[in-house]
Amino acid sequence: MHHHKIRNSYMPSLHRIVYICKFKMSKLHNKIVTEKNTVKVMIAMYCNKHHGTNGYELCMKCKELSSYSLQRLDTCTFGENKPPCKTCQVHCYRTSYRKLIVEIMKYSGPRMIIKHPLLAIAHFIRSRRKIKI
Ligand SMILES: [Zn+2]
After folding, report:
1. What's the gap in Å between 47 CA and the centre of ligand 1?
2. CA 65–ligand 1 middle distance (angstroms)
3. 13 belongs to a structural domain
4. What is the pTM of this model?
5. Residue 110 within any structural domain of the chain
6. Which of 16, 31, 49, 132 has the fewest CB atoms in 10 Å of its CB?
7. Which pLDDT score is estimated for 82?
8. CA-CA distance, 79 to 56, in Å (whole number)?
9. pLDDT per position as a tens digit, 98-109
10. Rounded to the nearest whole angstrom, what is the distance from the C-alpha of residue 126 to the centroid of ligand 1?
11. pLDDT score at 20
């Protein structure tokens, strides 16, 4: 670091910005981890709006759905090669949960672009990807 010229230390350097972006993108590389984060964010947004919660703590129903969804992702047969849930041939969700998560994604999907642009972009790219088994 000593070869860097001293400048306003409050200004983030370009190097630092690139570093942060790379770090964030590398985290997005792990599909299961990213999908878990995405589903958590989506449920929280929905619960916040529809069930009067603060956006961090979930209501009982959504907490149940959240842990169910995370557990589904943990046990996904495809692992890192998983197709988007929307186009998956294996129907691993219980019907009642499936209905709710579809509704949540419809609501939170488009709204995520503002609050979580990186997750939203990753989700969008993946949801368009063709299934490869
Ligand atoms: Zn809720």
Report:
1. 4
2. 9
3. no
4. 0.73
5. yes
6. 132
7. 87
8. 27
9. 999 999 999 999
10. 26
11. 76
Residue 28 lies in a domain: no
pLDDT tens-digit profile of 17-60?
Answer: 777 777 776 666 688 888 999 999 999 999 999 999 987 899 99
Q: Is 59 helix (H, G, I), strand (E, B) or coil?
A: coil
The answer to whether position 3 is within a domain reads no
| Residue 65 in this model has a pLDDT that exceeds 60 | yes
Residue indicated by tokens 């370009």: 14
The region that residue 67 occupies, defined by phi over 0 for left and psi between -120 and 50 for alpha, beta otherwise, is alpha
Tally the domains of the chain: 1
> Do residues 39 and 49 make contact, with C-beta atoms less than 8 angstroms apart?
no
Q: Could you tell me the distance, in angstroms and rounded to a whole number, from the CA of residue 115 to the centre of ligand 1?
A: 19
Question: What is the distance in A from the centroid of ligand 1 to the CA of 103?
Answer: 12
Cα angle value 69/24/116 (rounded, 5°): 55
State in Å: Cα 119 to ligand 1 middle.
Answer: 21
CA of residue 58 to ligand 1 center, whole Å: 5
Domain range for residue 81?
A: 34-128
Say how many Å lie between the CA of residue 105 and the centre of ligand 1.
Answer: 13
Cα 68 to ligand 1 centroid, rounded to whole Å: 14
